[in-house]
Every structure is written in C-alpha cells, then in structure tokens.
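Exercise 7. Given the encoded structure of a 378-residue chain, write a plausible sequence.
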C-alpha cells in the first residue's frame, strides 16, 4: 500500500477536477475568445469557474486573474507591484523564510536598485507584526509575506499586518503568498487587507499548471504578458481551460467542507505527534501551525537516509520545499535550528484524503527507521 504524505509539494487530482478537465478537452474544447457555439460554451465555463474561485477566495470575479501557477502569481504581484508603486519609493520588505518564487523575485528587484529588507522569522517560521512595523519606512513601496510557511506550517497574521499598515497610513502595497493557506486556513480577501493574493490549484487537488492572482479593485498593475486581451488585457494568452475548469471543481469539492477537512487533518497531526513522542524520546516536532504541514526531525540522522528508508516502504515525504530539489532548507536555517536538527528533518504534508491508517503506517516506519538506521558520527 502506497502512503503519500507530500501534499505540501503537490496533491493528487480529485475525481471531480479530473472529470471537469476531461470534459473540456473532449467536449467543450473551444477557444473562449471565439464567438461560435463552442467558443461561447468555453467562455461560459471560464466565467463560471472564475466566479466559483472568486467566491471561495472572497473577492469579486473581476478581481481574480488566472495564471499558470503560484510562482507566476508571486512574480506578477511582486515585480509589477513594486514597479506600479515606485512613486512611493524603492524600499521593499519580505522575510528570510519565503518560497523561492518570492525570494528570487526580490533578488531581481534588488538587482534593479531596490533596497530589500528581509525580516528574520519567529522560532516557528512566522513573521511578527512588530518586525514588519519596525522595518516600515515612508518610502516602503511593497511588502510580501506568505500566509502559511510551506516548510514549517507556521501562520503569519497577514490581517494584523494589513491593519497596522492602514493605522500608520502606509502607502506600501501588501502581497500575500497564500498558496499553502488557501482552503486550509480561513480568510477572505475582502476582510484580509492584502492588495494582492496568490493561490495555486495543485495544492488543493486540481492539476498542476493553474494558479490565480487576486488584485484589489482599483489597483492598476502593469500588463504581465503582452498579446491578446485575455484576463482584462493584463495577461495575454489563450486560457488553460482544462486546468481552469478543474481548479473550480476542486474548489467546489473542498470549500463547503473546509472546516470538516481541516479538523480531520488537525486530528491526524495530533495522532502522529503523540505516537512518535511515545516511542521516540529524541524526536523533535516543530510547533504545529496550519493543519496540513508537520516538520519532524530525528537529530543525528540524515533526512535523505530517512526518506530513502520510507520510500522503500512506499511512504513518500520530503525534506524541504520540493522546489529546492534536495538543497538544504533556508527556512530551517533562518529560524535558527541546530545543524543536526536541520539535517535530520523531514516534512509531512497531509490532505483531505489522508487516513489514520496512513499516519499509523508512517509512524511505524519512522520508529523502525530510528531503530535500524545509524546516526551520523559527530
């Protein structure tokens, strides 16, 4: 039996999303910009899908723009947001624990002459409101922080950051990478306070290759891809209709049951933590934040060896963000964990399809690994 516990990297496509994509590819396959019957049918699906996802995000359908992925959404928001607001200044703020799509977008801004402040995180990987306000300046043009850290699961209080910016009459734009938080941590764009929010389909059981960017009504961002008039003229290119329809169906399947699914994942987290703590006195479990991500470390062991042992039993986890392809975690380094903890860390990602049996098999295998594998000589 295969046990997939790498859902923070990607999720399996749910049946509803797969069926929606297949229908678009085989039946309603017209170009939504075409004016004939097939085109109009595709346009109706496009409009309905946008309304569904916007409804779950809590924004107007005219504020939601489809992209190819969360990374594209992050790049669009950060690079174009800084450019759009450069009259305010060339100082921008992010943190040291962001996803590489954000980190490298800020590297690009820095190469363009922007001054970048990279905030130190709290011990759990979140970013405090105080850290943001201490770094805020009159010439701060943009702030970008993730809602849920993709490696630790720590939750940053973005709404509190937004309230503080408003209180201080800051003209900085606020972007939130909510790729790991959408339909996992409750929030609505209308009350969240962020000017831009990135989300992605493949984290919620839609296919890869589809994301979206919320842009607050009234905020004018520069065109990101030039060409046709798709996405209100801001992002040219024929819409990826199979992925868009699948994204909407994945939202339809999850959003009404979000509280139930997150409670179930939270219970699985507790089950896992209690089982490991009872058998492995030296195990280290990072503070639990979002309900679907667990950071677990066996100090003195090597995460690659642990992963290989688990994979031989068809149990799949990761050691850090999948985008790092095995490189050392900059997140765990930034929060100040000892080297032996970082080098022995794995990430467990749950989903609404994860079962108690999955967790029990994982715990049994990790306990076995602890007994059979050699620790690293210090």
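Solution.
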């Amino acid at each position: 039996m295969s046990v997939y516990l790498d859902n923070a990297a990607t999720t399996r496509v749910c049946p509803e999303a797969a069926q929606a994509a297949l229908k678009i590819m085989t039946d309603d396959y017209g170009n939504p910009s075409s004016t004939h019957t097939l085109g109009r049918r595709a346009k109706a699906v496009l409009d309905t899908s946008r309304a569904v996802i916007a409804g779950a995000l809590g924004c107007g359908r005219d504020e939601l723009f489809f992209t190819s992925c969360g990374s594209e959404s992050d790049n669009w928001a950060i690079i174009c947001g800084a450019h759009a607001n450069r009259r305010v200044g060339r100082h921008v703020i992010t943190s040291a624990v962001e996803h590489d799509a954000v980190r490298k977008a800020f590297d690009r801004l820095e190469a363009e002459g922007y001054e970048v402040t990279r905030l130190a995180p709290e011990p759990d990987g979140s970013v405090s409101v105080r850290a943001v306000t201490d770094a805020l300046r009159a010439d701060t043009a943009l702030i970008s922080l993730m809602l849920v850290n993709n490696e630790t699961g720590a939750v940053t209080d973005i709404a509190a950051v937004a309230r503080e910016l408003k209180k201080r009459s800051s003209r900085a734009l606020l972007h939130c990478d909510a790729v790991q938080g959408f339909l996992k941590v409750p929030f609505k764009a209308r009350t969240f306070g962020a000017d831009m929010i990135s989300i992605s389909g493949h984290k919620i059981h839609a296919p890869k290759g589809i994301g979206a960017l919320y842009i607050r009504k009234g905020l004018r961002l520069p065109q990101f891809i030039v060409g046709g008039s798709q996405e209100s003229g801001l992002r040219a290119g024929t819409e990826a209709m199979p992925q868009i329809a699948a994204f909407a169906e994945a939202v339809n399947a999850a959003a009404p049951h979000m509280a139930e699914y997150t409670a179930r994942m939270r219970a699985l987290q507790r089950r896992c933590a209690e089982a490991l703590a009872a058998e492995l006195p030296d195990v280290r479990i990072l503070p639990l934040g979002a309900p679907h991500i667990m950071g677990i470390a066996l100090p003195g062991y090597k995460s690659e060896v642990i992963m290989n042992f688990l994979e031989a039993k068809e149990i799949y986890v990761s050691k850090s963000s999948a985008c790092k392809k095995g490189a050392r975690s900059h997140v765990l380094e930034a929060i100040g964990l000892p080297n032996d903890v970082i080098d022995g860390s794995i990430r467990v990602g749950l989903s609404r399809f994860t079962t108690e049996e999955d967790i029990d098999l994982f715990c049994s295998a990790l306990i076995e690994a602890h007994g059979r594998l050699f620790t690293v000589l210090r």
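Remark. The chain has two domains: 3-11+258-372, 15-255. Students should compare their own answers with the one above.
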